[in-house]
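#random but structural
TW: two for the price of one
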Amino acid sequence: MSGLSHWQLDCSAPELYERYLVPAITAKWAADLVERAGLRPEERVLEVACGTGIVARLASLRTGDGRVTGLDLNQGMLAVARTASGKAIGFIEGSALDLPFAGGAFDVVLCQLGLQFFPDRAKALSEMRRVLLAGGRLAVSVYSPIENTPGAHAFVEALDRVLGSEASRIKRGEHSFAAAGELQELLHNAELENVRVDTVVQRIAFPSVLDYVRFQLLATPMAALLGNHPESERQVVIDKIASEVADMSEDEMLQGGGFSFPQEAYVGTARAPG
């Protein structure tokens, strides 16, 4: 067990997400997305479903202070985003299905690993296109099928074994795009141009299997699975799931006591007409 045995008691889930999952996972995808978007100084950028704001922070480094806006429905995530970013970025509570901005308000719209959760993906992409100026750029990423990310696949299998067949529903929902073509079709249907979708792999690493399982169950919406359990019982369940994940993992994923595996996503870029 690592030295993080009591970390879940010290912070809210959004704070834990920012402290542990952003550096381990989402910062890598954010750097890739911002690079593909080709941001330039003075461009106006919107990040949709910004969470704690890692994409917005990296975008602000490219565009300059006051040029980036982050939008999310989750007030807790936005509070952490504001603390982490200071006054350089404006964060707004709002829905991806009804963006509170005028048409053509942004040069670039970014959406990292959020589209898969929207109840109407087509509507969300239509809104992103609407707020882009003519010729503006969109960059969006979604996870590929969970079987292509072996650490996450072992985790959902372990969840179902320990907590029942519906326990992994939220985590599997992160990986609901079955093929790159699904994202490509959505972008084309949104009347975007120069559509390109790449399959991208990042190497994800955690100090241990136990830490990975803790982070998933205490710093994401999956915390609801253990919400009614007392602290001592939560730890027993987490230990059991971690043991199952380790048993199902290939040896190369467990080198040196750590937990490392490839994570795959589809990353799409496109332009607004004009």
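TW: number two ↓
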Amino acid sequence: MPADSKREVGRRIATIRHARRMTQAHLARTAYLSLAMIKGIERGARAPSDDSLECIAAALGVDPGRLATGDTIALSRIGTAIPAISASIAGYDIPMGPPRRTLAELHAAADEAVDWRLAAQYTRIARAAPTLLGEALCSLHHATGRDRQQAARLLVGIARAADAVAYKYGHHDLSARLIELMRWAARQAEDPLVEASTAYVRTETFFAARAHAPGLRALEQAIDATPPPSGREAHAVLGALHMRAAVIAGRADDASAADLHLAEARRLSNHVPESQYQGTAFGPDSVRIHEVSVAVSLGSDHVGRALDVASEWTPPDDLPAERQSSFWIELSRAQLWAGLIDDAWESLQVARLVAPQHTRGHPWARETAATLRRLRRADAEDLTAFAEWIGAV
């Protein structure tokens, strides 16, 4: 049951429903719940179960955390899914099957999983990932020719979605296994851009191990192996590698390499509109967000660079929720270092509003919340509730 009162949860559901111009009957049909239940929840007479809350959130197109700030859906769903995800890839090189879905059906499901990842909808990924991974592996083992290459590309995208769940929630061993699965599948896709996008994700392994210098070298090798860009997709994939290299160079305290890679990412972003390429958001807005990331990665002496970006620009609403949330989390860290306590607290709240599951799983958000709770006295009750929600106390 949510930590909020039944009336608060009901009010939030009604507010978002009105904003979506949905009737209670429409919401009930879309959420596969009875009209009487929707009416009772909105009046505050009934408390939704975790399953009902997730159905309502899906129907409204929002994260469950927007409806019940103390909900435990993400943690319980993901905790249940992790062993199933692990089991689904244990025998990835052993042919099973035949596949139950056509490649076209699997393609649609993979695209949906990518959308969920970019929107930080990790509970949806967790629920679907074990089955999707198993079916993608079956398709790859039974396909031939170009169909096999397509199946390999789909498996990369699905494994990356599952990896987002594992990595964000601290299951780094499983994340590393999923990344190795991606690398295995990427080689069979016979597409250098797929291999480059996999190298981008592989950086998580180096972040988790704090092996930043080897991680930078691995990305630079991937950059060298990527063909010269000849179109939007190629420009974006190469630019994303430089963007990622800039961040890990900052973590390695290599300011000159960070600036060099950031400048190259900025140059390449001038050739493409902001969009999703090979599963990664890239373009001028993403590069700006990474300017903040690089500044924060380099440490408190570079805090001014992050604040300068934020003083004249904030992420537009059409950027993926995960990327927007990262901006606010990293900006909050910079504001804390600069002594801007109120601003840091406000940025954390924005991050949570944009992508609750991403914020809750982010270690820097947790660290900043814990520090703010020690330093701040005003609004102590709200801050304590936030710190408890994010696991900082």
